[in-house]
Amino acid sequence: MEEIRVGVLGGGQLGRMMSIAGHNIDIEVIPLDPKGILSPAGQVSISAITGSFKDGNKINELVKKLYRPGDEEKKVKRVITVEIEHVNCDAIESIELKDVEIYPSIKTLRIIQDKYKQKKHMRESCLDIPMSDFDEIKSIEEGKIFGERYGYPYMLKACRGAYDGKGNYVVKDEKDIKNGLGFLNTKYVYAESWCDYEKEIAVMILRSREGLIKAYPVVEFTSKNSICRTTLCPANLSEEMNSRAVEIGKNVVKSLPNGAVGVFGVELFAMRNGEILYNEVAPRPHNSGHYTIEACGCSQFESHLRAVAGLSLPKDISLRVGVSMMINTLGLKAKEEFMRLLDIEGASGHWYGKEELRVGRKMGHVTICSNDVKTLRNNLLIVKDVLND
Amino acid sequence: MEEIRVGVLGGGQLGRMMSIAGHNIDIEVIPLDPKGILSPAGQVSISAITGSFKDGNKINELVKKLYRPGDEEKKVKRVITVEIEHVNCDAIESIELKDVEIYPSIKTLRIIQDKYKQKKHMRESCLDIPMSDFDEIKSIEEGKIFGERYGYPYMLKACRGAYDGKGNYVVKDEKDIKNGLGFLNTKYVYAESWCDYEKEIAVMILRSREGLIKAYPVVEFTSKNSICRTTLCPANLSEEMNSRAVEIGKNVVKSLPNGAVGVFGVELFAMRNGEILYNEVAPRPHNSGHYTIEACGCSQFESHLRAVAGLSLPKDISLRVGVSMMINTLGLKAKEEFMRLLDIEGASGHWYGKEELRVGRKMGHVTICSNDVKTLRNNLLIVKDVLND
User: Fold this and answer.
1) Residue A345 touches chain B, beta carbons under 8 Å
2) Do residue B218 and residue B361 come from a single domain?
3) Does the distance separating the beta carbons of A320 and B369 come in below 8 Å?
4) Given an 8 Å threshold on Cβ–Cβ distance, is A350 in contact with B315?
5) Which among A196, B8, B209, B243 has the fewest CB atoms less than 10 Å away?
């Protein structure tokens, strides 16, 4: 049988859960992370490379690690994938990859890692992907024009390197534009017209090397300081809005190049008028898909590995419990909260093993599965104070 | 918050799944195994000790590994547990353990690791634990007396060191006794009268440090060459037989000393007349409890760790899918079989990462969850040849 080795750029919690999923189906995951074998992913992996996933030399080292003495005598499949989209695409392209394949492809990563380019790509695709108005902002003047055209408040966002709400600024009025441009600390920014959504939702889309596309169930999620706090699946949406979300999610991934292989976390806005608008996409397992570990036929992490490694996609990625809620445990009190949540009926914990507690940092999450929403609400009563926090 | 470190004697697949469960709830698992960090458990652990779990010096090294510089400044809980009962109890007792606790206790292990002593213990307890007749056999003469009293065939079993059917011999008739005694290759053997059961069933029993006892759902299982091949949960039993199995399972664990803490795999016979008879118990997670990872509110591995570490027991260990079947993938063709099983709807794989394929060796398992038995049977049609093998 074939051996499969997957190098992962990044070794955080996504890489950790990917590595565990890999062990389970005999795919060896090797993370590249500044903390090496002490990173969240490194701790659960057979080996790791210590270094930055932006450092070409280190990426080269990771590629070399996929080759071993004795490989001539067996069939080995070698893949590089990512747990974060902000990798150094130029560096990767400069490396001699021999038979190592990269999924999602560099072309896909380049489109997604630049949020402005990403949105333009979606708008210009011939596919049905509705979204709010947006434009690049190169000066206060352009910011004013945007405000006049689409109204205040609006969002000002850094085009590159942003995640978990970092690199976002709410422009309240004309006078606030200067503050926004200063706050973002980069010249390459764009504005998005205000989206007065009812709730934020997300759908994990899975694409195989052959272009087969599958969708996980839609979740709704809440955020605190722009960091995901909870997800609920199934999302409380009309059947129509639910199908629309899946349709748009699939269109987003269809619009990407053929090399867009793996799991894609598509974030959407559910509007009060019933519309669904596109927000953004991540080319990897996503926080809003953590619930899939316990709640679905196959987790997003295993699905991602199967897709990038060219195995068949899992047959069943539907919800196999009545309802599931995921709660991120963040910041300095994360461990206390984690232990309390673990005591809830139907709770499963995932601690990330990060050395250092930091304000707002994702330290772990707990997923609670119940037969129905009423039971879930009841089970959650003992942590009411945590959830209201 | 308290740090929890658990040293595990043994580093096979049970230790591996225990270590992954540990990561998820922030319990550090450190296995002791001849293959060290390359053992199934070592591969997924932050560190491991290389050596035999029967070697006192190595156990001592494991104990020392539970202490680290800087520990004075924090609260640390240190525990030793087992993934196999055939450990060296004398060696463990000779080690200075300081504040390291051992669960299940040595007293418990001593009772269980000697099958004859184990059965006598159960028979002599004042609890209701029905079982077949048995007696120690010191000579061919005693073997004949046993045969005359209880009939042929009967089972001849090695009292110590036996598992997965190793150390069992079916005595066909009087003339066969000599062969049996020779085959078992030890003088310390006992006979059990023949149990013409309808099916073999098992129940995982969980006991906390405080003596709280909980039971997982009952499973039925099939064996091939005395090695577990499949488990099915829920077992196809009358409600009465099912409750009786749980009752006996709980009695078995109740009969053990107070230090009997953790998960206990109780194997039982479901007789054609509706009776349930006790067969044997393992003081650790058990092959017939693997299904709990996907199918129950909390896996046997996490439950075991929570119990031995003195955390609260999980609130929900009930079945949260309609039905689940676990299939062991054994021997030289294990990987091919594993990949095929993985393709079934609702399948989750657990590959053990063992370096070497060997005939009959447990290389991995796949658990298939479905809404109902009919769907399960349908889903299994594509691997009919595997299951009939």
Assistant:
1) yes
2) yes
3) yes
4) no
5) A196
pLDDT in tens, A53-112: 999 999 999 999 999 999 999 999 999 999 999 999 999 999 988 899 999 999 999 999
In a domain, B213, yes or no: yes
Examine the predicted complex and report whether its ipTM is higher than 0.90: yes
Q: Within this chain, do residues B81 and B167 fall inside the same structural domain, yes or no?
A: no
**Token digits of residue A276:** 């669904």
B295 and B338 in a common domain: yes
- Let me know whether A352 and A217 are in one domain: yes
For A271, other C-beta atoms within 10 Å of its C-beta total: 17
Q: Do B188 and B210 have their domain in common?
A: no
- The whole domain housing B223 covers 197-388
Instruction: Let me know whether B326 and B217 are in one domain.
Output: yes
Residue A27 buriedness (CB in 10 A; 0-12 / 13-18 / 19+): buried
Strand-by-strand arrangement of the A3-9 sheet: A49-50, A27-33, A3-9, A76-82, A101-102
The Cα of A353 is separated from the nearest Cα of chain B by a number of Å equal to: 7
B182-228 tens-digit pLDDT:
999 888 999 999 999 999 999 999 999 999 999 999 999 999 888 89
> CB–CB of A343 and B316 under 8 A?
no
Measure the CA–CA gap between B251 and A84, rounded to whole angstroms.
52
Whether B367 and B237 map to the same domain: the answer is yes
Cβ-in-10-Å burial (0-12, 13-18, 19+) of A362 comes to: buried
Q: Which residues of B touch A1 (CB under 8 A)?
A: 335-336, 339
Please give the interface size between A and B, counted as residue pairs whose CB atoms are below 8 Å apart: 86
Q: Does A20 contact B at CB distance below 8 Å?
A: yes
Of A43, A312, A351, the CB nearest to B25: A351
Give the end of a domain, one of A176, A193, A210. Answer: A193
Model pLDDT for residues B21-42, shown as the tens digit of each residue: 999 999 999 999 999 999 999 9
User: CB contact, 8 Å: A36 with chain B?
Assistant: no
Pairwise CB contact (< 8 Å): A351 & B297? no
What gap in Å lies between CA A363 and CA A378, rounded to an integer? 25
Contact A21, A94 (CB under 8 A): no
**What does residue A253 show for φ and ψ, rounded to 5 degrees?**
-70, -35
CATH number of domain containing A167: 3.30.1490.20
In a domain, B252, yes or no: yes
Contact at CB, A316 and B346, closer than 8 angstroms: yes
**CATH code of B28's domain:** 3.40.50.20
A4: helix, coil or strand?
strand
| Distance, CA of B360 to CA of A249 (rounded, Å) | 46
Kindly state whether residue A365 falls inside one of the protein's structural domains: yes
Whether A113 maps to a domain, the answer reads no
Q: Which of A295, A358, A299, A348 is nearest to A322 (CA)?
A: A295
Q: At A243, which CATH number?
A: 3.30.470.20
Domain count, chain A: 3
Do A320 and A338 have their domain in common?
yes
8 Å CB contact of B20 and A23:
yes
Using CA atoms, how far residue A25 sits from A235, A363, B365, in Å, is 30, 26, 10
